[in-house]
UniProtKB/TrEMBL annotation:
InterPro entries: DUF3325. It holds the Pfam family DUF3325. This is DUF3325 domain-containing protein. The chain crosses the membrane at residues 38-56, 68-86, 92-112. It comes from Janthinobacterium psychrotolerans. Keywords: Membrane, Transmembrane, Transmembrane helix.
Amino acid sequence: MINTILCALGLSYAGMASLSLAMDRHHGQVFGRDAAVHVRRALQLAGGVLLALALWPCVAGWSASVGVVAWLGFLSAGALGVALLLPYAPRLLFRSSLLAAVAALAGLLTLLQ
């Protein structure tokens, strides 16, 4: 159960961080320059895929109806984490989102077994 929660929360946080870094304002906060068009599109795609993948452990851990509601809660928690970290430690946001994505994807692989 804890693996399901951590996996969904990590994917949600990484997806929300990716979507925020696709915006020029936030990309500039982290990297000091605006994002190129192809980088912005890649971040948007990665964010959407990560948020969609966050639904999988929720539905696998609970039923479909409860899983969707839990997924919406994890999306909110991931967005809150990004919103609280971005103004104060923007570079930490990038590093922590990469770590969360790798850890959550590894956790997702354990759910397959």
